[in-house]
């Protein structure tokens, strides 16, 4: 009888320890997921509203020179994602203020996400991905 009680107690203790570890892993995974996306996203409508109301934000097109020339958001500056990810000197020249509001976009949104993540890793604090120009229903400059 004492042996059964001992085995039951050991089983309960092992189950409790395993449950606590799994719960901690879940919290760590949630924390890692939150840290993996340090930038924010805006819809084209939200971005346009802020662009119309604010004059101190920077709109960055992270596509290629050819894509930029084919059509871009008015006032957008070209800074290809490859330069941002390589931490090129051009990043600091185009974006000298690490606290400025920065809206990044590309063709579909994928490169914008990469660029936004790279900028936040480089210390920029107000970075927003506004997706892709394919979803931009407003004026573009050619």
UniProtKB/TrEMBL annotation:
Residues 1-23 form the signal peptide. PROSITE patterns: PROKAR_LIPOPROTEIN, RHODANESE_3. It comes from Megasphaera stantonii. Pfam families: Rhodanese (PF00581). PANTHER family: FAD-DEPENDENT OXIDOREDUCTASE, PYRIDINE NUCLEOTIDE-DISULPHIDE OXIDOREDUCTASE. This is Rhodanese-like domain-containing protein. Residues 53-142 form the Rhodanese domain. Keywords: Signal.
């Amino acid at each position: 009888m004492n042996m059964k009680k001992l085995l039951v107690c050991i089983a309960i203790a092992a189950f409790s320890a395993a449950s606590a570890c799994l719960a901690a892993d879940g919290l760590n995974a949630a924390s890692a997921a939150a840290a993996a996306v340090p930038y924010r996203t805006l819809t084209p409508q939200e971005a346009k509203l802020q662009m119309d109301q604010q004059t101190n934000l920077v709109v960055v097109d992270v596509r290629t020179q050819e894509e930029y020339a084919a059509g871009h958001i008015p006032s957008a500056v070209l800074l290809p994602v490859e330069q941002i990810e390589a931490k090129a000197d051009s990043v600091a020249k185009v974006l000298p203020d690490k606290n400025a509001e920065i809206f990044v976009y590309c063709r579909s949104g994928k490169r914008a996400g990469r660029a936004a993540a790279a900028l936040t890793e480089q210390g920029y604090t107000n970075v927003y991905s506004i997706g892709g120009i394919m979803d931009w229903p407003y004026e573009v400059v050619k």
